[in-house]
Amino acid sequence: MPERITIRRWLFRLLKLPPRLVYAIGLGAGYGRFVLLLTTKGRRTGQPRVTPLQYEQVNGEFVVASARGALADWYRNVVADPRVEVRVRRSRFSGTADPCSDAERIADFLELRLERHPRMVGRMLRLRGVPVDPTRADLESYASRLTMVTITSQHGPHDGHP
Prior knowledge:
By secondary structure, the chain is of the alpha+beta class. 38% of the residues lie in helices and 28% in strands. The protein has 7 helices and 7 strands; from the N terminus they run H-H-H-E-E-E-E-H-E-E-H-H-H-E.
């Protein structure tokens, strides 16, 4: 029986199109400063699934978080099969995704994102009900609902920007 797609799920799928188009027409170099394309294998279908995600590069690895926590389809796909493909800026690579639901580690990641992109990330956090100047406890409380993934290239760490 075909899967019934809710309006909310359809909207999420629609929002994935512009970043994919930007990469497809060769403009990923600029856009890729903030967004990578993560390709996972569908846990039920086995088909490739491409998801645009904001990321941070930390010690040669790429870290992405899921605002939907463990309910995000891409995250559930990674848990089922950690082998992924990544397209970021002008680079493509195969990698291994390491899922994490530890609130302290996720709060560390949020602190890093706030440090690097205070306006953008601050606004996103405020939209999720996090105070303007969040304390560590605020970040850990919010992080308890999130998940994140660290992606390591199969060819070793990337130096600088890919």
